[in-house]
Write a structure and sequence with these properties.
Blueprint (H helix, E strand, L loop, with lengths): L2 H35 L2 H32 L3 H33 L7 H27 L2 H8 L2 H21 L4 H33 L6
Helix pairs in contact: 1-2, 1-3, 1-4, 2-3, 3-7, 4-5, 4-6, 4-7, 5-7, 6-7
Pfam families: PhoU
Subcellular location: Cytoplasm
InterPro entries: PhoU (IPR028366), PhoU-like_sf (IPR038078), PhoU_dom (IPR026022)
């Protein structure tokens, strides 16, 4: 394969990954909105869309391994392919968590809810979605400096996670009838926190792409 053709294949790989990331970012936004607005239909749409993300990962994995096997890339080219292979796995897990939040929306039909906690979850959800979008932009630009800055946002998400957990504990003390809702709130918070972790992982893969070093941001 000519060098220009090989570069075209890499570009297609990265563009397909970005499309996958865009799909997951949309699912995160939808699943939080569905949870807060108690929209079971929208939640079902998110669950059904998870298959789209899974298909993206399968195609990216197949193409990445194909390039490695047939082209035997080295140095920066190999890092580029490995980055897609590993990062797509992180994005797929984000999609899984978005789907899990949607399933929580369906389980909570008819249950007593706590408005203040849901408002806090909505706030955390927006922060997580923003971080995912920023991480994808860092990836597509291969911006190492920005990768460090975006990864630092995970601390803000962790703080929101702890604050909302504490709020939920206090709220359930005041309203024991919302115990089932509280259990789901803790689960949703955990899913959002994990999505933030995976967004940070994307930033780490950008650093690997640029430097060849695997570090923890």
């Amino acid at each position: 394969m000519l060098r220009t053709q090989f570069e075209d294949e890499l570009d297609k790989l990265h563009n397909q990954f970005y499309a996958m990331g865009t799909e997951v970012s949309s699912q995160i936004s939808k699943t939080v909105r569905a949870f807060i607005s108690h929209d079971r239909q929208l939640a079902k749409e998110v669950i059904e869309s998870d298959e789209i993300v899974n298909n993206y990962e399968t195609k990216l994995e197949k193409k990445s391994l194909e390039i490695i096997a047939l082209q035997q890339p080295v140095s920066t080219d190999l890092r580029s392919v490995i980055t897609v292979l590993k990062a797509s796995s992180d994005v797929e897990r984000m999609g899984d968590h978005a789907s899990a939040i949607a399933k929580a929306t369906i389980r909570m039909k008819g249950e007593e809810r706590i408005t203040s906690v849901e408002e806090a979850i909505n706030k955390m959800g927006r922060a997580v979605r923003d971080m995912v979008e920023e991480a994808m932009n860092v990836y597509i630009k291969a911006d190492e400096a920005a990768a460090y800055a975006v990864a630092a946002h995970d601390e803000h998400i962790d703080n929101l996670f702890i604050e909302t957990q504490n709020m939920t504990v206090e709220a359930i003390k005041a309203n024991p009838d919302a115990a089932f809702a509280a259990k789901e709130y803790f689960q949703v918070l955990m899913y959002l926190e994990r999505i933030g972790d995976y967004a940070r992982n994307l930033c780490e893969w950008v650093v690997y792409l640029k430097t060849g070093k695997i570090i923890e941001l």
